[in-house]
Amino acid sequence: MANRCILQIALLLSFSTISLSLSYKLLQAQQRSSSLACGELLKQLKGKPEYCLKDRMDFKFPEEIKQPQHFRKENAALVIQEMLQNILDIVRKNFSNTVWNETIVENLLVELHQQMDSLKTLLQEILEKKDITWEDTMIIPRLKGYYWRIRRHMKAKDNSICAWTVVQVELSRNFSFINRLTDYFQD
Amino acid sequence: MLGTAAAWAMLALLGPTALTLVAGASWGSPAASGGKSLKPPENVEVSIIDDDFTLKWNRRHESVRNVTFSADYITSEMDNWIKLPGCQHITGSKCSFSLLDINFYENITLRIRAEEENSTSSWYYVDSFIPFEKARLGPPEVHLEAEDKAIIIYFFRPGKKDDSSIWGMDTTGFSFSLVFWENSSQVEKQIKTNHYTYKIYNLSPETTYCLKAKARLLLQNRSGVCGPVYCINTTVEHKPPAPENVEVVTQNQSYVLKWDYEDRNVTFRAQWLYAFSKLIPGDNSDKWKQIPNCENVRTTYCVFPQNTFLKGSCVLRVQASDGNNTSFWSKEKNINTEMYYAIFPPDISVKSTSDSMRVFVTALKDPWNKFYPFIYEVIFWENTSNTERKIVAKEIDLTIPDLQPLRLYCVKARWHLLQDKWNKTSAFSAVVCEKTKPGASSTTWVVIGIFALLVIVICVVKILQRCLKYVFFPALKPPCSIDENFSEHSFGNLLLSTSEEQTEKCFIIENTQSVIIVEETDEIDEDCKKYDSQTSQDSGNYSNEDETLESQISEVLLQQEVLSPGPIS
Questions:
Q1: Which CATH architecture has domain B245-271+290-340?
Q2: The complex's ipTM?
Q3: Across the interface, do A144 and B372 touch by the CB < 8 Å criterion?
Q4: CA distance B408 to B382
Q5: Angle A62-A68-A71 (CA atoms, 0-180°, nearest 5)?
């Protein structure tokens, strides 16, 4: 009886692992395509890069995310979600602003929301299982500090066209970092 | 941690006066500053709940009345200590402070000292901390709005409402959990949402409902404390009632929005909203947009194009109006546009053998193949029977085994997406029928038959060849009389025999004047004549050589060879 129970548990575990790894594969594909779409949308936002060179700034993106060395896929998912949330929060501030084309901003928000939504279910599962090593999440404050600097810059520049142009370029880079992080979904 | 604090102090104190440096270095021991012995406070603690920062400490000079306390702070982005606002010249043992415009995600260090008239104690350095990490979540603020059969809850995240809040950058990361009950009953309902506006439906009119809520930051694994209980009464039943059972289906590249309503003397209108708006706090009632073709409709449905919303999640709602009054909005219908995207059926082609059939299915097209693993289902049946057989496969090329020869089989196929939330399936492809090839046994017979025929043909050809050879190229056999003469030699030897002997024979023929022999062996006679004319041993060799070539060489060839000087010399 006990043996059968163990067998069932083992089977269940192996199936859940399979299903989780499959969904990581699916997520990777979705995130990549979505990042691409977001990058394209950001490109369509007409900034004024040539006028805004003096406004360029190093917001100090955390190096350990820029050049990820070792990431567990669960933590990669967590970092991506944190990034998406912050990007959405920055972009939505422009929603009623006249600097950017409202339709493009709206599409960008839709895309970001979709991307966050697809990660959410998985993250809930991870967090319930306590699959996150919280020591590794010390990276989160550093990441938030980076977005804080972006926001401070926008505030300091009074949401000028140049401030938004700098942010637009910065966010485009964000999506390439997200893509790099999705590589860890394969492990 | 202590080391970090000290390091911070050293770093920060490089700028300010040397006096402070001395005080900093002598931290931990009562400093004699200004001649009097004043001790710094002890057991200093910082607590953060939302945007309320509190510094608490224990005084060491309870008897001394006029001792006050002041605190400074420094962050890793700053060069100098700054006076902590709200914590200057405090007579008590705690102070509330605010940190304006600082990065809550960087380390911050606090120091505090006792002050009395002109003297000050040494600094007490508080372990550096990241405010965001240290902060605890308070309860969310809740606003309620009642309808007759629903309650709308507006959540406000904990902390200050503006961006200067410590949670200012987590607005989209909040979720709320509710405990909800009818006042007169003890049955509680748990609700979780990450929307800032949430509506509870299916309630009774004129009833009191209560709830309490707490906030949660999922990614930070942080749960807040429960807020106070809020109660509200639902209104009297409203007329006209709100439409019910809102549903969306697709038809010919359009959406059909349907709902139920009893009274037919009303008009309806429907609105939509991108679901991301629900993640944004505040009133989003102005974000709702009119659905085209769904304004002032008298039917309980409306049809609108699929490109009304781009993609992603949307919320739809319907309202009825009888001319004077409008109903409350219906229950909101959440849809994900992806759910309604059609997958087109595959194209199939088949190739049959006698007992199997290969089915080729076109690959799944964009964008589905990019995201979802898929399988396809192939259904086949014999044309004359009704029993269908099903095969599920992953490859686009599969073989259906165990079929009967010379029967008509039909096949159709469709896609199944795996792992998408809606178990999406395509329609079936067109039916393709093909007859299987003749059976394996008859093929064998055909092969055997062909083989037998081939053998017969070969035999016939052989025989025919032999006959022809016999007629046109009979075998060389000397007449009996000559044979007798050569009786002492074997025939093989005759062929291989030297020309010397043959020339001798020729001479014999001439000398004996045996006319009969000459006449009978015409060819030999000719040969002999030539040997004669040549009258050389070598030429005899030649003639002999020709004979060993077996076939009867024509006159011309012979002459050519005779004339050719090559071998003779």
A1: Sandwich (2.60)
A2: 0.84
A3: no
A4: 6
A5: 115
